[in-house]
Amino acid sequence: SQQGEEDPQALSIQEGENATMNCSYKTSINNLQWYRQNSGRGLVHLILIRSNEREKHSGRLRVTLDTSKKSSSLLITASRAADTASYFCATDVGGSQGNLIFGKGTKLSVKP
Amino acid sequence: DTGVSQDPRHKITKRGQNVTFRCDPISEHNRLYWYRQTLGQGPEFLTYFQNEAQLEKSRLLSDRFSAERPKGSFSTLEIQRTEQGDSAMYLCASSSLRLAGDSEQFFGPGTRLTVL
Predict the structure, then answer these.
(1) Residues A70-94: pLDDT tens digits?
(2) pLDDT tens digit string along A92-104?
(3) Which residues of B touch A31 (CB under 8 A)?
(4) Would you call A94 and B101 a contact, using CB atoms and an 8 Å cutoff?
(5) Nearest CB to B106: which of A45, A90, A96?
(6) In angstroms, how far is CA B87 from the centroid of its own chain?
(7) Is the pLDDT of residue B64 over 70?
(8) Closest partner CB to B48 (pick from A48, A94, A98)
(9) B89-111 pLDDT, tens per residue?
């Protein structure tokens, strides 16, 4: 079963605008990760935030984590057409369970 | 290129046939994962290995599915008696477990299976 739920399911913006995607999850986590997937391709890791962190930055990406609300957000600033892709959050519940649990993703379209 | 590679990239087969996919992880990674992804969905976990040991299998992995990682390096995923519902993208990922306990996974390009 899928733990993460991204919101919105689809997002269309103009180049230069910011894009915000949200993710909610159900159980306690060790960390939460965001991945990008271009159409029909493999996933690319973007950023990892640990359960004891609240905010993390990487280039134009900003991720927040609120463990009390079991939610995370991914902000992409100054978007580019090349950012067009599907974005997935994935939770790592840690322990002996090694797999990631992915949401259904947000499909982002950035128009030039 | 030292990323995760998968072979073949595409496979079309007839229902009832067996298929086998291969994954070569990043060489220093001790963990290897298999996921399945259908259209419009996120990847769903199938199984993972730490070195050559298969540590966990999802309920999605029916007895028609078997995975191996005989020497702790490459892995194979075999599907016997394929069904149309097996049509999906099969993704392989690898990681190296860090002391901190968290690890990002590096994904291969996937094998797209179509069962006719």
Answers:
(1) 999 999 999 999 999 999 999 987 6
(2) 876 655 678 899 9
(3) 102
(4) yes
(5) A45
(6) 14
(7) yes
(8) A98
(9) 999 999 887 655 567 889 999 99
Report how far residue A15's alpha carbon sits from residue A34's, in angstroms, rounded to the nearest whole number.
21
Q: What are A90's two structure tokens?
A: 């994935």
Interface contact B45, partner A, CB < 8 A: yes
Q: How far is B46 from chain A (nearest CA, A)?
A: 9
- In whole angstroms, give the CA distance from residue B77 to residue B68: 7
For the record, the structure tokens of A59 come out as: 């280039």
CA torsion sign, A18 to A19 to A25 to A28? negative
* Integer Cα distance of A24 and A1 in angstroms: 14
Locate A102 and state its tokens: 């992915």
Residue whose tokens read 């957000």: A73
